[in-house]
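tmp note - ABC transmembrane type-1 domain-containing protein
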Amino acid sequence: TVASSPHKAVPPQIHLCAQYLPRFLVHYRMSIRCFDASAGSIILSLSLLSLATRGMAFSARVHSTHFHAMRNFPRPGAKPYPTLRTAALPSRRKLASPITAQIKQETKNGEHKEINLDWAQIQLQASLFTKMALPYFKEERSARLLLGVVIAFTLANSAVSVGFSYLGRDFWTALSQKDSEHYFTLLGKYALALLGGVPVSVLYSYYRQKLALEWRSWMAQRTIDMFESYRSYYILEAKKEIDNPDQRIAEDVRSFTQTSLSFSITLLTSVIDLFSFSAILYSIYPPLFGAIILYAGFGTASTVYIGKQLVGLNYEQLQREADFRFSMVRMRENAESIAFYGGEPIETREIKRRLARAMSNFFELISVQRNLDFFTVAYRYMVQVLPGFVVAPLFFAGKIELGVVSQSYGAFNHILADLSIIVNQFESISAFSAGIDRLGEFLQAMELNAAKQRPLVTGRPDA
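out:
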């Protein structure tokens, strides 16, 4: 029997790689086109960052699933060609866009057609985020009140920033004109502004952290209850559909609540500052406002193109780090059995193997981040000279004062930060998107299990 095996001389991994490499390359190009389409939607919708993030996460997840499945090779006797990771979860498919089902069908049938993403499909991808984020604020009155407090302090903080912009303008104008009387008057106003501005900034940060903490506590308790109900902890482990549920409850819930709130408040602040400082900048010199729009658009498009692999790599890193940590926990919990049977070499080898896989993926991750940093660092340094390059001729011609130049720098930096959310937060967004995928997959798997087990417990079909 051994002699008759046609692949005896060739390792099964090499045979499978040679067999499915052409199909993998086709799907790789398909997923890249899919991603570019979603990236285009991101650029066109800066004010709707959360929806664009979901589209970017979906397309990178398609790329990551096919790439890592082929790189790690399926075991002999396993299903020869892998499907998307969420294909086994019917509840996930309800939230998936038509393009998701189309990719699965093409993968199964071996057909390869042109794929295009439109806005409606990206919006469907965003529904997973909405499903996880809204229940806390719908069910808890205290959460809505605390959110209102955070929004109020956000508005106050933006108003303080605008006020300091005008104080800074008058301050530098008085200094350049050597107007000592006006200068010391402005110093007194500045001290009074600090008395009001500092408490606003501190309380804004405090209440935002308090809301994130209470949201995490509520969501973690809800997730633990779901994990315990209908023996989900046992069934999910037996089916091996969900890896490392402990990390998803402890780490992914924390990351989701903190980062969701941070991005939402950042987006709100950006919208407020954009309107406030755009009026200031446009009143100073309209061409400067046009220059910042072009510069921010160029930065966003370049960042998305350079860093498009980060979402998939961050998703893979979360999983591999959790696998590595679990292998050490397993060794600790089974210490007596391992010592009795002398299993130290086997356990140590497995722990080191998982560590090597995590480090290998992390090296890819920092390599992509390095390439992205080359652009983003240069992008931030250019901000120091671009406003001056545009308004300096007006100052040299005596048409504006030094304080106006200083104010234009401040307004320019505020607007650029508002329009460059993706540039400045791209690494965080990619890690956040990967966390949403893992947490959403976990919650939907528990919901599906509950839907299956509830009729067995109650004795009647679920409504």
